[in-house]
Specification:
This protein is an all-alpha fold and 287 residues long. It has one domain. It has 12 helices and no strands. α2 packs across α9. The chain is globular, with a radius of gyration of 18 Å.
């Protein structure tokens, strides 16, 4: 059952990516993040209201850091999706476990297991292989956004881990992240020229971005609660497979074999780094 929940989450995240790529023709990345956060806030807020759950928290600063990092990472991720092949953008975003391992080792000075730095080196070789044969000169900005989203997402991971250690429930973490994403994207939406008259197709894409994102998070949380963390972390990378399939079907995006070798190295090294770091703190983090 755990596997089904995680595969469903991966498929839904890939569907969200498709909506983002289609929506980027009409909306800015920050606007898409606003609607992603706003719809999620409504859904989770409804759950909080029905269950009469308390939103007050003594850990507001940690929530703020997590929310800000998550918002910036999401904007960069959505921007990358609009500029480069979907599979490449998703894979670059999934470098976050590599950077998280670096943060744990170098910043928090956690004990480093034998082989961690070798694993990280392999992962970054994978990044080089993915980028070199895949992207033209005009696409390097998108690549920078994708890699930046992975780097900043690792800070969000770190704060999610901290909130978990402090005993914060997942629904509260997701609520504040969603609310901060909506607040962060609001200025861009307000200055849109003009204040968009959104057509039916636009609304469908926006609801897709928000709805698929929330459903994916719910499935992901269910997967992590019902089985081994490493299994869920492994299956999470199937998002790359689904995104690649959508890219081929919808935009004729085909990665060369050397780029696929890079994707494989990133996935394997990300899983190994997660294992060597002791745990996979991926619940309620991004997207």
């Amino acid at each position: 059952m755990q596997s089904l929940w995680m595969i469903a989450a991966s498929l839904l995240f890939a569907c969200m990516g498709v909506c983002v790529k289609l929506g980027s023709l009409q909306f800015s990345a920050a606007e898409l993040v606003f609607w992603r956060g706003f719809i999620a806030t409504l859904i989770i807020g409804g759950y909080v209201a029905v269950r009469r759950l308390p939103l007050a928290t003594p850990h507001a600063r940690t929530h703020a850091t997590r929310g800000l990092a998550g918002f910036v990472s999401l904007v960069m991720y959505f921007q990358a999706i609009s500029l480069i092949p979907l599979a490449a953008a998703v894979t670059l975003n999934y470098t976050s476990p590599l950077f998280l391992a670096l943060l744990l080792a170098l910043w928090l000075k956690e004990p480093v297991r034998c082989g961690l730095y070798a694993v990280l080196a392999v992962g970054f070789v994978g990044v080089i292989l993915l980028l070199q044969p895949t992207l033209g000169g005009e696409q390097w900005l998108g690549a920078a956004y994708g890699l930046g989203s992975g780097i900043i997402a690792s800070i969000a991971y770190l704060n999610v881990r901290r909130l978990g250690e402090l005993g914060e429930p997942e629904w509260r973490t997701v609520f504040y992240f969603s609310a901060m994403s909506a607040l962060g994207g609001l200025p861009w939406m307000l200055v849109a020229s003009p204040f968009h008259a959104i057509d039916l197709g636009g609304w469908m894409l926006l609801v897709g971005v928000g709805g698929f994102g929330v459903l994916a998070q719910l499935c992901m949380t269910a997967a992590y609660k019902r089985g081994k963390t490493l299994v869920s972390a492994s299956l999470a990378y199937s998002t790359v497979v689904f995104s690649s399939a959508f890219g081929v079907l919808l935009w004729d995006e085909v990665l060369p074999w050397l780029a696929w070798a890079g994707v494989l190295l990133i996935v394997v090294s990300g899983l190994a780094a997660t294992t060597l770091s002791g745990r996979a703190d991926t619940e309620a983090v991004t997207e």
